[in-house]
Amino acid sequence: MPLVLGVMWQQDDVYSFENAGIPAGVDIEKLTDIGQWISDELGIPNGSRVGAALVAKKKSTVPAATSSPAMSTTRQWDAVEDTREYRVSRSGVILKTYNTPIQLSTT
Fold first, then answer.
1. Nearest to 28 by CA among 64, 58, 68
2. Which Gene3D superfamilies match (predicted)?
3. Which of 32, 58, 74, 97 is the residue whose CA sits 20 to 30 A from 82?
4. What are the backbone angles phi and psi of residue 71, rounded to the nearest 5°?
5. d(Cα 14, Cα 92) in Å, to the nearest integer?
6. What is the mean pLDDT of each successive set of 10 residues along the chain, which is 107 residues long?
7. How many CB atoms lie within 10 A of CB 12?
8. Closest by CA position to 80, among listed 62, 92, 63
């Protein structure tokens, strides 16, 4: 399910979310193909930096490097700070903050 319904995702946004470990629910490869098709039909260059880079990578004749065990597609998030109001997690140089729901007493 997309992260936000009713929003037209742009390639750069989807790429940024996915790299931050936030699933956007959008297939970036298909989105890139559609963006390139639209650019080709209109006769204009691809306005997305991510889209243009992925299209160029796809067209290159250099075979893709095989992934090594050292390269992981998922991030390892470590808790930096956890309070009643918020939580901060870190993966390398990237920080994520979360609002922590406060449990209300039903008594």
1. 58
2. Aldolase class I
3. 74
4. -90, 125
5. 20
6. 40 86 86 83 80 83 54 76 83 80 63
7. 13
8. 92
